[in-house]
Amino acid sequence: MTNNMMTIGTLAKIADMHVETIRYYQRRGLVAVPAKPYGGIRRYDETALARLHFIRSAQWLGFSLDEISELLELEDGTHCDEARALAEQKLKDVRQKIASLKQMEFTLDNLVKRCRCSEDPQQCPIIHSLHGKLGLPARRVEHGVQEESQ
Amino acid sequence: MTNNMMTIGTLAKIADMHVETIRYYQRRGLVAVPAKPYGGIRRYDETALARLHFIRSAQWLGFSLDEISELLELEDGTHCDEARALAEQKLKDVRQKIASLKQMEFTLDNLVKRCRCSEDPQQCPIIHSLHGKLGLPARRVEHGVQEESQ
DNA sequence: GTTGAGTCTGTAGTCAGGTACGGAAGTAAG
DNA sequence: CTTACTTCCGTACCTGACTACAGACTCAAC
């Protein structure tokens, strides 16, 4: 079944992905489009499957598809230092995220505990707290929002 | 400056948000649209500002705008148990995320360390590992992707 | 030889959380 | 009174990672 020369549908099944996802990766240049025999159907081999595994592993580590493109350019293994730089940056990002999620956890946990103990249903500590500052950081910087505001 | 009866621009400045963002919240029903004096300009007061603070605090705790809508319906403080349920669910989510980020951290940290020590630049352990399984879980479930695959 | 499933191609839609823009009308300063 | 900035309103666009669908074609089974 995992023989070389399978159709995209078989490839998708083995890789546990939708066909459309593979095509999408092809459009983004992450996966090669094999030559099509005249009036026929494209066939995929093990290297295509390996590519999909690579992509999924990297995604699981938090790399975006753009970053995975970069990684794939280093795939021959001769650019170890660049690959390491990418991984280090990602490690930094991951630690950052963990830190802020822990802050959230702490705050939420406090709220829930205080709420559980509150006897006065008229003043819910959760709702109440949301009106305060909660010690939240400067500004959310996500979705590429720039910091400058004229 | 933080007087009542400010324009949307002033409100935006104080809340450190873009005007467009406030309008967007209005379209989503998160922020009230004050009545417009005939042929005039709408004015906002402290309660609008409080609303924006509420939204931002809740966002910081990881609530989506939809969830914030729900929270806002409980704003009178008489639905403490519902608010607590939402907060508890969110706490669970946050802990889940922390757990999987820690997995990522562990894996990335290992990769980076092994890479640092590798003397053979022909075989970068990072690139190499991405071809293996990395012990990644079943399937990414994000963006509302369903688990079923025909 | 027909049926039904799979493939190919291109384009469009989804979700979240905004951001941008165009044109008309109002407003503040000089 | 003019100039320059805001506001208002609607609509369109953005990112990221897909997902869906239409219409033509190909392929394998019966």
TrEMBL record, chains A, B:
UniProt-listed GO biological process terms: response to mercury ion
Known function: Mediates the mercuric-dependent induction of mercury resistance operon. In the absence of mercury MerR represses transcription by binding tightly to the mer operator region; when mercury is present the dimeric complex binds a single ion and becomes a potent transcriptional activator, while remaining bound to the mer site.
A Pfam family recorded for this sequence: MerR-DNA-bind
Superkingdom: Bacteria
Domain HTH merR-type: 5-74
Descriptive protein name: Mercuric resistance operon regulatory protein
Organism field: Marinobacter santoriniensis NKSG1
SMART domains, per database record: HTH_MERR
